[in-house]
Amino acid sequence: MRPALFIATLLAATDAFAADKASGLGPYGELIAIFILLAVVVFVISRLPTVDEVNHSAAFKRRRVMNWLPLGLTYAFLYMGRYNLKVSKFKFEEMQDAAGGALMSNEGFGVIFTVGVWVYGCSFLINGPLTDRLGGRFAILVGAGGSAFANLLMGLASWSLIKEGPMHGAIGENFIVIFSVLYGINMYFQSFGAVAVVKCNAPWFHVRERGVFGAIFGILISLGIYFAFDVGYKIVNHLGVAEVFFIPAILLVIFWVADYMMVQNSPADAGLDDFDTADASSGDDGPQLGALEVFKRMLTNPIIITIALVEFCSGFIRQAPMQWYRTFAKQTNEVLQLKGDFIYDHWGMWLCVAGIMGGVLAGVISDRVFQSRRGPVAAILYLGVTLGSIGLLWAYQTPAMNIAGIKLSLPGVLAILISMCVIGVHGMLSGTASMDFGGRKNVGIAVGIIDGFVYLGTGVMSLTYAYVLPQERFDEAGKLVGEVTEPANWSPWPISMIIVGAAGFLLATRVWNAKPKGKGQQPPAPEEPAEEPSSA
User: Fold this and answer.
1) 23-32, 234-243, 291-300, 525-534: lowest mean pLDDT where?
2) pLDDT for the residue 532
3) Residues 473, 143 contacting (CB under 8 angstroms)
4) Does the predicted TM-score (pTM) go above 0.85?
5) Helix (H) or strand (E) holding 37
6) Is 440's pLDDT higher than 60?
7) Structural domain spans, the chain
8) Which phi and psi (to 5°) does residue 341 adopt?
9) What's domain 2-14+28-44+65-268+290-515's superfamily in CATH?
């Protein structure tokens, strides 16, 4: 984990001594945020349990780290190149279009993000079978390379718009259409990331290890959220909006090279012995089934479909606080004074901590308390989502408070707790249950279906909020005015999370006892009764 921690620290420390007066911590706010983040990572890594039932050699464990660490960091930087769209809104919403509205309004962002996540959600029809056929290594190289190119294009479009470069007029007049197309291209390649990660890791981890591994891998993914938001906002503030696209593109190219050199699809490809992972592919030594046959099996498997529906809810809930809390805080700031509190200023760090704690909580409880069953953990965490959303509805109009000289907000705290619960569910189901019930042979299609439902749910969230949340309007001086500045007009935000959270809880209870069964674990067919001897 040291390379991951070093990169996180290096990027965060670029602004370590920036003024942080609004939160009441003076110039030390950034250092405190970094300390909290690293303390959580170190504590979690030191406390993760070992799995006694699975014995691997030291050489195997070393080579496995060399496989999943660059893969995980690549996925972290894919997150950075995915959520930078939201970070760019921080600047684009302050620029007016020809009609006097925001260049990227709440509605405009909702439309662009909806296009992207629905492209992502539907891409599994192509990318799941491709990954099962060609391997996770192929998928991560295509995904990282394609996303780097798409981010380069978005950066060039932003640079041309800001610097009045080539086609800046056409870009300004067709901003939503152009960024919808470019973000859609980005999200197509982004969709290779999840299937690549799960496909690559399935042959390297036994079922009894996957919950704990999911916690470790969740740390790397959560670092991607930190890079996307906290580091992304620093890039926008200190370098510019175009750079928030250029820098992830550069990092993805660097890790494309690392993946090409180190990542292998299986232990055998790395010169080690394969082993029985005890998942749904256990005992299945036959040829790879055709994509249509695998789709048919997955779509008629009630466990896979139920998990996919739970993850549809996760897609809605995960992005609702992640994408909209800072926008809510910024646009209602004159009333609530949430902007500039410790959570607002370090949103990415707190999301990262929430992701780490949610992933560890889910993974360890699943393997240690529920014998590697994923359903009970999902149900418990969804109960937390629902209760947290009810609390947010009660408290979302609460102003920021000063506690021991630190500016904090109750809506921000609740948004982080909701995120912790739903990120734990997402890692447990998309990252772990998809391995278990898809099996290492067909996990690409399984995770494609499940993760596809995640982003279909995100698309529903984004499209819903594009039209039910208040829209930005400016006065002649360019000041934000109107209904968007009144907190009461944001009530659809927590209400929708309550409804979807309750649905996720009820669905999760339906897979409470589900566990994967390999081909050799299926119950034997009943024997035919012996024929009675003839009396002749």
Assistant:
1) 525-534
2) 45
3) no
4) no
5) helix 29-47
6) no
7) 2-14+28-44+65-268+290-515
8) -80, 175
9) MFS general substrate transporter like domains (1.20.1250.20)
